[in-house]
Amino acid sequence: MRSSANRAEASVAEPAPQLRPGAIDMLRRRLLSRIGILICAFVVGAFAAVWMLQDVLADIDAANADAAVLIDGTLDATAAAVAIEHTLASGTSGPVERGAVEAMTVSLEKTLDRLAAHHAASDPASPAGSALAHARLLAHKLVGSQPTASDVAGMHAALQDLGRLLRGHVAAEQVQVGRYFRGLVLGLTVAATLIMNVAILVLLHTAQMVLRPVSQLVEGSRLLAAEHFDHRVNVDQQDEFGELARAYNHLASQLQSSEERKAETLRQLAVTLNHGLNNAMSIIELQLGLLDRQAGGNPALASHLREIRGSLTRMTDIVSSLKQIRRVVLTDYLPGQKMVDLERSVELEPPQQPAKST
User: Fold this and answer.
1) Of 9, 10, 49, 81, whose CB neighbour count within 10 A is largest?
2) pTM, 2 dp
3) Secondary structure (3-state) at 326
């Protein structure tokens, strides 16, 4: 008994857990950091997606502009060649007609010069560049001379070949831009799905980080209310929940120590009462034995003596049960007055209380 009392006193003397500087804001910082990282990831991803889409749109606009320049230039050059051909086919060769043919030939050369300034036909080694160089050479021969129908027909055939090559270049450029755009949309979709899944996993882990210790603390509070003072909450987190768990365990330890001290006090009191009661019982038994011999077979007196002996036995049992007390359980005796419930106080474990639904 002395050793358990010493253990109880040592447990009570144990200092309360101290809050570490900055620990109370640790959970808040962890939550804000995780949410902040997710928000930054979404913002950076959105800016990157907008920037890449703007780049693709610029490529689409450039492809459309190239198509307009190349196709319109080819059509203008073809129209000029057709006009020259029609003028020559009319059979007139007056000064007006010759002046018109010369003006159309100069316009044709200028149109081809504009096409030559475009990057699609600026490389003489490329098919389009080679066809454009041939068409410019024919156009240069037409300027300052009297073109014939065969010259214009050759020029027209060269322009048709140039138009075919330039249209192929425009179509290939548009296909390339379209493929890049579709690939970018697919990549952005996959990246957004991946970021969303990561965000869901992070949020689930964050929720579990909060819900698990809360569940343990709620269950611990229910067991503490059911007088299970030996229960301890195991929350291995260096944050507010960890501090709360340590405070709960310290409170449960104090309550357990207080309960052990009260039970030890009652057991010591039971030993004292049992010692005094045994002496009194010995004297009472001696006196009852004398009265029993003097009764002389009187049944009424013998019945009273048996009742006295039964009452003394019950008193002895009550005092003996005090030595088996494991915890102190109070019950109502009179309005405003409590008494020790011996039957529940000597139980090994307090009864389990059903968990309340939340």
Assistant:
1) 81
2) 0.56
3) coil
3-state class (DSSP) for residue 227: coil
What string of DSSP letters covers 15-27?
PPPPPPTTGGGHH
Report the alpha-carbon distance of residue 222 to residue 230 in Å, rounded.
13
Helix (H) or strand (E) holding 268: helix 240-295
Mean pLDDT is lowest, of 47-56, 84-93, 250-259, for: 84-93
CATH topology of domain 24-204: Four Helix Bundle (Hemerythrin (Met), subunit A) (1.20.120)
Cα–Cα distance measured from residue 211 to residue 204, given in angstroms and rounded to the nearest whole number = 10
**Phi, then psi, of 340 in degrees rounded to 5:** -75, 130
Burial class (CB in 10 A: 0-12, 13-18, 19+), 303: exposed
Q: Domain spans of the chain?
A: 24-204, 258-345
What's the half-sphere exposure (Cβ side, CA atoms, 13 Å) at 305?
A: 19
Placement of tokens 């990246």 in the chain: 191
What is the overall mean pLDDT for the chain?
Answer: 77
Phi, psi (rounded to 5 degrees) for 47: -65, -40
- DSSP element (H, E) containing 337: strand 337-340
